[in-house]
Amino acid sequence: MRTLLLAVLLLAPAVAPADDTIKAHGIAMHGDLKYGPDFTHFDYANPDAPKGGELRLGGVGGFDSFNPFIIKGNPDDGAGRIYETLLVASADEPFSEYGLLAETVETPADRSWVAFTLRPQARWHDGQPISADDVIWTFETLRTKGRPFYRAYYANVAKVEKIGERTVKFTFKPGENRELPLIVGQLPVLPKHYWEGRDFEASTLEPPLGSAAYKIGKFEPGRWSIYERVPDYWGKDLAVNRGRDNFDTIRHDYYRDMTVELEALKAGAYDVHPEASSKEWATAYDVPAVRNGQLIKGEFKNGNPTGMQGYAFNTRRPLFQDRRVRQALGYALDFEWSNRTLFYGQYTRNRSYFDNSELAANGVPQGAELAALEPFRGKVPDEVFTTEYQPPMTDGSGNMRDNLRKAVELLKAAGWNIDPSSKKLVNAQGQPFEFEILLLDPVYERITLPFVKNLERLGVTARVRTVDTSQFKKRMDDYDFDVVIDRWLETLSPGNEQRTYWGSASADQPGSRNSIGIKDPVIDALVEQVVAAPDRASLVARVHALDRVLQWNFYVIPNWYIAYDRIAYWDKFGRPDVIPVQGVQIDTWWIDPAKAAALAAARK
Fold first, then answer.
1. Nearest alpha carbon to residue 190 among 97, 82, 99, 89
2. To pair with 581 at 20 to 30 A between CA atoms, which of 134, 209, 556, 602?
3. Can you give the pLDDT at residue 18?
4. DSSP characters for 363-424?
5. Is residue 545 over pLDDT 60?
6. Neighbour tally for 92: CB within 10 Å
7. For 351-402, how does the pLDDT look when each residue is reduced to its tens digit (9 = 90+)?
8. Which residue ranges form the domains of the chain, and what is each CATH number?
9. What is the structure's pLDDT at 175?
10. Are 183 and 8 in contact (CB under 8 A)?
11. Where are the strands (E) in 430-544, listed by range?
12. Are 353 and 545 in contact (CB under 8 A)?
């Protein structure tokens, strides 16, 4: 399922009941909703888009389950497509949600509870109505049997109860957490009557029952799956759905690795490919189909925070528990050389966990941000208050002696010195400095091996190990790694998910997003400040404070990012004219019959 969104607050204008609650068609984190109660479609969707045809997508690895809500198994890429949430987010607002399964959402001014009234026409694919009991069962099941993410994400819900035939009320624990109504609005609702008698915690290849525009059709485990549009889908005329889900079928095909996947795209085996590799984007598309305009290389700017990607240290390992060691290893990565020689100058260096947005911490803390940090003076690195964080830089020539010299000084201060006989870095007990870098795909080897060479110059032995999808997932879930390339996606409205990224409570939960293993009371407190932010200005200031403390603890060696989406696609689609701030929305595309016919003729 796509990245789970975040945050909550005000509603569009509505008549407030006497108890000062607001009941409306949607809810926004801060400010008013963009779309009123009578809106007909999102601005970035074409309500007149034709329906039909097939969208073919590629993937790497395989699948052995249609249950994406548990740790066990490798779920199919489209497994979440058959379910719907109470509310659905718009892609052209920082964080607003509108009713999908829910007809209305109601909450008081203090955000201490939220109530959702389900649409009377909402139906499962077997024709049974979606009920309040389904919502309650789903919530309790995900929190007790689902991935650790759900326990952390919904931790502030104290009680869930049915208060009407179609109304469910969620009551929250005391404390400031203004996004909770929206957090609960993201709940994917599952059918209670289907799962009764089945083991929810077991992976399954029996297609589950859903309620959305698509259901699982034919499939071959590990190789391909097809999702079919539901002809009598109950929600096809809702404003939030008009102009979306335009394909009759959506097919997922799986390939051994990214190289094979790309070759399959160029051969016409599937239609749309988000490109992650700068080298491939610069060199691998010099083919006739691109030159004659049949296969299009599209670059679409977005306003999303890029999040952080980097070589992440597993601080559960004693080797990486010293901040100076983590800082030192960062001096061995020569981004400027890599960008020039490997990335064709396409990337910008990550320096913030919220790059490409106003949420990124710059300069030194002032005002509200400084006030948020002051209670922790002496408990965080001094640089947090005095210096803007910047990752180590070079001139791009490949000569990085100055950086390596700084790394040596830090390693010496941490108790690591070169053994004259072996020329290896050792500690006071004579133990060598060795670790493994775990990779998911061979494409990352060309990026990582130059980094390993630079580490060798420090006397550090780093081994690169590339594993398949199943093994990678298992080792990540069990935190069985030293260093891994990891990425934390962010939105324009950070909130509860920060607990799963950096919170102490998630550090020891198998399968959590706290892969680093951070257990820091200061970071816990800063995360809670972000969650409790009462308005946009305070949210930005508190995110800056969190960002700055993460930066100066050197939990990752920052990688790089681009501020646009690189998407290669065959010229058979129509697209809306509007691209929202959160980037391209493939589910608003459609098959253009004239283009598809011309492409088919050209291929013949």
1. 82
2. 556
3. 39
4. SS--HHHHHHHGGGTTTS-THHHH---------SSS--HHHHHHHHHHHHHTT-EE-TTT--
5. yes
6. 18
7. 999 998 899 999 999 999 999 999 999 999 999 999 999 999 999 999 999 9
8. 1-300+563-604 (3.40.190.10), 308-561 (3.10.105.10)
9. 82
10. yes
11. 434-439, 461-466, 483-488
12. no
Cα 549 to Cα 523: distance, rounded to the nearest angstrom:
7
Task: Assess contact for 54 and 247: CB atoms under 8 A.
Answer: yes
Closest of 54, 561, 567 to residue 285, by C-alpha: 567
At 97-154, the pLDDT tens digits run 999 999 999 999 998 999 999 999 999 999 999 999 999 999 999 999 999 889 888 9
Structure tokens that stand for 437 in this block: 């870098």
Tokens matching residue 413: 């201060």
* AA identity, residue 410: L
From CA 215, how far away is CA 375, in angstroms rounded? 52
From the list 358, 322, 354, 345, the residue with the least C-alpha distance to 502 is 354
d(CA 385, CA 383): 5
Q: Which residue has the tokens 């509200």?
A: 368
Give CA 519 to chain center in angstroms: 22
Which amino acid is residue 309, in one-letter code?
Q
pLDDT of residue 603: 85
Secondary structure element (H or E) that encloses residue 160, with its range: strand 157-162
Tokens coding 279: 């080298």
> H-helix or E-strand containing 593?
helix 593-603
- Residue 215 pairs in a beta bridge with 228
Over pLDDT 70: what percentage of the chain? 97
